[in-house]
């Protein structure tokens, strides 16, 4: 996705998508190279050719990195006399068909880039006016196929009209279905990469459509990763062979992330089944860059035939996240991210992935960790991660909860907190925070009180494209019996305010025996999510 420099400084971010075409390609996430994060819209034919040769000479193509994809800046600005798509002959002097042949002759695959709007995106504030494909879908799809394109990245600028460069609420799903159908009609298997920026929640588009993502940069920072990881929380279930959530192109090898952050980025993207599109200058990669990109165990995680994404299991706010998901051989992949800003000893509780014991392999190092019981503790770098393959997992006993509806009349709503009807079966309490508080009364602390696990069902539709204090999340501060409030960072539950996240877990102490406990939710300086119910472990 292409954004103007203005956007970058505003910190806005966009979202590409992989779009199911049922054409036999895209059954596992695409792997390849795209220039954008390194060269923006000024990539030359020489650089495209060099990148293709680097994929071969560096041994990347044999690991699966096959696609050499164009991004913005290659296109012409006017169509030819018969209305055909053209290229900029100063940028691509030998022409697109010759470049495509060059790439194919190396045994690689060739990707083109266009836009579903009137003009394409650019990096000069929308003034370049490169060709877009709106209204020319059939003819352009035929041109791309005739050039031997194997992949189309389809952007979203000028979606509304010829003056509105970037619109965050364009009526555009038909732009994507029109091109999807035009590509299908060519009969050439072409991966359709929807660069829709996530603005219309394309992961939820009907009928075997899509997955989703978000502009990672440039420039990239650790905060961008936090934003994208939160954005993924409500849509992991949509990933599957043929349609994957696209978390955006890789920043491995680029300035802005530490080595540990790049490793976490790569492993998380892989385990979430995002396309792995290298987007750095491959003419002089560091050993560190190549070590990350060439990790065959992490690549295998990405290319696993089951195609299921890891999903959000548990957040220990400001400390670590636990994500996990199934693999084709029946094992489980787990990714534990260290949110702390320093190297530390991190304990992963197996119960957070519903196991009491399992046999583990560290997929970053390849080391067998052996049989784990209850937990695993390792030293993890600042913003580093633990990536495990867990086999032979023994199920942990599932906790049971007593649920308290937030909107129950026995609760205390104060300072503006109010009920909101979501559906015939769900009423939530909103306007919690900024003075509003929700207090759940008469909570049962059981015979002993002490520490309890809470399981929270909530709605948070506060999605963003730029970094905020809590990007694609909201903070709640929860206190038991008036004790110290504990910060709980809750990711979005959807990109709308009508879909629940169920089962956000947090452990809190301070419960007394018996049924006179209170749980109070607040936020002194921002809004918390809307709460449906809170379960307290029995
Ligand atoms: C116009 O462009 C299309 C697509 O590249 C091509 O097939 C056609 O031959 C071109 N027409 C002329 C007159 O150059
Ligand atoms: C283009 O779309 C924008 C946003 O909807 C609108 O404000 C503007 O008036 C439109 N311009 C034209 C020429 O239609
Ligand atoms: C890490 O450092 C940043 C920048 O100082 C700070 O905003 C953030 O809260 C810190 N994170 C943790 C988990 O301490």
From TrEMBL:
GO MF annotations in UniProt: alpha-galactosidase activity
Region forming the signal peptide: 1-20
Keywords: Carbohydrate metabolism, Disulfide bond, Glycoprotein, Glycosidase, Hydrolase, Polysaccharide degradation, Secreted, Signal
Domain Alpha galactosidase C-terminal: 318-390
GO terms, biological process: polysaccharide catabolic process
One GO term describing the cellular component: extracellular region
Subcellular location: Secreted
Listed EC numbers: 3.2.1.22
Gene3D superfamilies: Aldolase class I, Galactose-binding domain-like, Golgi alpha-mannosidase II
First-level EC class: hydrolase
Alphabetized InterPro entries for the sequence: Aldolase_TIM, GH, Glyco_hydro_27, Glyco_hydro_b, Melibiase_C
Catalysed reaction equations from the record: Hydrolysis of terminal, non-reducing alpha-D-galactose residues in alpha-D-galactosides, including galactose oligosaccharides, galactomannans and galactolipids
Family under the similarity heading: Belongs to the glycosyl hydrolase 27 family.
Name by which UniProt lists this protein: Alpha-galactosidase
Organism: Crucibulum laeve
